[in-house]
Design brief:
By secondary structure, the chain is an alpha+beta fold. The protein has helices at about 5-10, 25-55, 60-80; strands spanning about 10-15, 20. Helix 2 (about 25-55) runs antiparallel to helix 3 (about 60-80). It starts with a helix and ends with a helix.
Length: about 80
């Protein structure tokens, strides 16, 4: 099975002979996977915080928002 993160970060551009695919660096793929994993972990932490302590933690939500913004920026910036 192909890696969906690597596929999403692959840049396709048109040249005279057709389309040319530029695969991303492996380091970028690992960093994006780590960022997605951290976003999932922080989301689980926020859900547990709301379930057990019945309170909202704005610092954890800020971290989730920041990581999400960085990941979206990487995907949009890589495609252009």
């Amino acid at each position: 099975m192909a890696d969906p993160i690597k596929h999403a970060l692959t840049r396709r551009r048109f040249q005279r002979g057709g389309f040319v695919e530029e695969e991303p660096d492996e380091t970028l793929v690992y960093v994006v996977k780590f960022g997605i994993a951290m976003t999932v972990c922080l989301s689980a932490l926020e859900i547990a915080n709301m379930a057990f302590l019945r309170s909202w933690n704005s610092e954890v939500f800020s971290a989730i928002t920041g990581l999400t913004g960085i990941l979206v920026g990487v995907f949009v910036g890589r495609k252009t």
